[in-house]
């Protein structure tokens, strides 16, 4: 084999090797670098402000390790019978997931139906505009008065917030969906509910995806705040308790844990939407 | 609707084809003045005819097709298919659009089966029909592909298969090949003519391309400023390849069309046109 032929054979292979290295760097090294920078800044701020004002990452992680599954501290204060932060985080997760699921189903259904039913549109649009303009936090005390400090209030608050957001965005997505898809479906014999189910629902998923992620991200904060205002369980409840008792490392630990949980569920949502939109180029890239 | 009812309705559609009766369509422009998109248009398309609607852009071709499809209610007149008055869109008049309307979120097979599913056809029936029509348009190997994996020409074949799978008596086509390159367009002309010869569906085909109309049509309706200015029967032999389209009667027909559409081409006298196979 001549040198040129040998070179021709090896050049693409080394190019492929470079591509593999660069994809590993993009997938693993860069995110790790980002985490390292975040921890470095956190450590620096902790050193500057003092560990009593801002606990360092080491202190926070030790606190989490000591209290995650079983917490003597919570038990000694009568806040649990041996369970750790996980059970409180679990309570918040359950409320958020129920609330987001109910709200998204309601908001998207009404939003898309309003495209095919004038009556639905005329009832839902002014309601969404009115309640969408009012800050949801203003409604929080009412939910607590009406439903008490059980999880119903948290679930309904999250549902309410999610439903308004998803209604507005799903309706907008349906309006933006190319009219010829609906017209084509009509001339092929589609009508009413089948148009909603087979055209509007799949066709609006790519645009609704962003709204769902915003709703999910907001739901964690909303659930935590509603627990701060009145609850006997949950991450927000513990944060309030630690604030009262000035347990700063506990507050940091819970906030950090809630952030991690939010990121995990956001990633799961991204994966779910990547599957639902696998027919589009963007969905295919997400799935990869 | 029972099978007997469906059969009876099908026979009515087959018997009468499409009658457009004094149809007008007036739009109010945003500045307040009225625009006559269609002005007292009347004609009857016989069953199995290939009718091309030709005219410059903005002169009412697409509006006419949308009125026949039931997507645009006329402001005057009526459209009848068989004994039924057109009151809205329906699977008895499926349409291939100028834009890409193959549903990107459905596999190719599901696109072809969309109308059949809407009609309530069984799974086995849908599969049989989609297999048949995917084979007819040469896409049987792409049944499980996503539309994004196909070229523009292949997606048009999917749209054709979806329309023809309904076995409707009338099919509407609004410049369906307008966005495709010349060679793809020519191959789709051949495919469409093959399928039309097989099904004898009445086809309304909107185009602004005179050559395309000469290749396809039995009959050419000329629309200018919303008015039907002529109704020409094309009796050129098929297939209408380059040699046929270079014949004097084809050239004269082009002149007639251009003349009627206001492009001032000189035409020979009407009698000689009739002698050469062009009849108005």
Description:
The complex is a heterodimer of chains A (288) and B (280). Chain A is mostly helical. Chain A has helices at 3-49, 57-67, 72-76, 85-116, 118-133, 136-147, 151-176, 179-187, 192-229, 235-245, 248-276, 281-287. Chain A is built from 12 helices and no strands. In chain A, helix 6 crosses helix 7 and helix 6 packs across helix 9 (192-229). The two termini of chain A are 38 Å apart. Chain B starts with a helix and ends with a strand. The chains are: A mainly alpha (288), B alpha/beta (280).
Q: How much of the sequence of chain A is in beta strands?
A: under 5%
Radius of gyration of chain A: 25 Å
Total of helices of chain B: 10
Uncertain stretches of 5 or more adjacent residues of chain A? 1-13
- Let me know the largest β-sheet of chain B: 7 strands, mixed
User: Strand pairing plus helix content of chain B: what structural class?
Assistant: alpha/beta
Quote the distance from N terminus to C terminus of chain B: 41 Å
Helix percentage of chain B: 25-40%
């Amino acid at each position: 084999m001549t040198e040129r032929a040998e070179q021709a054979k090896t050049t693409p292979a080394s190019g492929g090797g470079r591509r593999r290295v660069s994809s590993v760097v993009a997938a693993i090294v860069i995110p790790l670098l980002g985490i390292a920078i975040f921890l470095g800044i956190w450590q620096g701020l902790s050193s500057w402000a003092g560990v009593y004002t801002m606990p360092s990452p080491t202190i926070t992680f030790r606190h989490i390790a000591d209290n995650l599954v079983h917490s003597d501290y919570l038990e000694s204060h009568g806040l649990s019978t041996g369970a750790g932060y996980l059970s409180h985080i679990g309570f918040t997760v359950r409320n958020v997931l129920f609330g987001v699921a109910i709200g998204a189903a309601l908001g998207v259904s009404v939003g898309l139906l309003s495209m095919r039913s004038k009556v639905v549109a005329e009832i839902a649009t002014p309601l969404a505009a009115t309640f969408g303009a009012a800050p949801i936090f203003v409604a929080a005390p009412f939910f607590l008065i009406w439903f008490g400090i059980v999880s119903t209030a948290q679930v309904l608050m999250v549902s309410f917030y999610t439903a308004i957001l998803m209604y507005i965005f799903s309706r907008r997505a349906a309006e933006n969906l190319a009219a010829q898809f609906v017209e084509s479906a009509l001339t092929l014999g589609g009508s009413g509910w089948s148009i909603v189910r087979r055209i509007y629902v799949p066709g609006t998923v790519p645009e609704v995806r962003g709204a769902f992620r915003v709703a999910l991200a907001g739901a964690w904060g909303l659930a935590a705040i509603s627990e701060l205002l009145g609850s006997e369980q949950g991450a927000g409840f513990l944060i309030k308790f630690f604030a009262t008792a000035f347990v700063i490392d506990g507050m940091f630990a819970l906030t950090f844990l809630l952030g991690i949980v939010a990121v995990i569920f956001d990633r799961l949502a991204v994966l779910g939407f990547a599957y639902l939109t696998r027919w589009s180029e963007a969905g295919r890239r997400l799935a990869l | 609707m029972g099978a007997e009812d469906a059969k009876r309705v099908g026979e009515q559609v087959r018997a009468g084809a499409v009658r457009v009766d004094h149809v007008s369509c007036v739009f109010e422009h945003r500045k307040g003045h009225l625009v006559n998109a269609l002005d007292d248009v009347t004609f009857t398309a016989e069953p199995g005819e290939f009718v091309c609607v030709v005219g410059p852009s903005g002169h009412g071709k697409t509006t006419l097709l949308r009125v026949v499809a039931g997507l645009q209610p006329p402001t005057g007149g009526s459209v009848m298919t068989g004994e039924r008055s057109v009151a809205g869109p329906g699977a008895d008049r499926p349409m291939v659009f100028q834009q890409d309307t193959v549903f990107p979120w459905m596999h190719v097979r599901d696109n072809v089966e969309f109308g059949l599913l809407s009609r309530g056809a069984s799974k086995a029936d849908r599969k049989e029909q989609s297999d048949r029509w995917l084979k007819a348009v040469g896409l049987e190997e792409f049944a499980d592909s996503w539309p994004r994996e196909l070229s523009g020409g292949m997606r048009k074949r999917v749209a054709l298969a979806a329309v023809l799978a309904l076995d409707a008596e009338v099919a509407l086509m609004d410049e369906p090949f307008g966005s495709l390159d010349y060679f793809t367009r020519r191959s789709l002309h051949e495919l469409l003519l093959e399928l039309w010869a097989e099904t004898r569906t009445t086809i309304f085909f909107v185009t602004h391309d005179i050559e395309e109309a000469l290749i396809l049509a039995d009959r050419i309706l000329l629309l200018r400023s919303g008015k039907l200015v002529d109704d020409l029967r094309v009796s050129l032999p098929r297939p209408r390849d380059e040699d046929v389209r270079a014949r004097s009667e084809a050239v004269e027909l082009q002149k007639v069309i251009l003349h009627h559409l206001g492009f001032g081409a000189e035409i020979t006298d009407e009698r000689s046109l009739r002698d050469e196979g062009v009849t108005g």
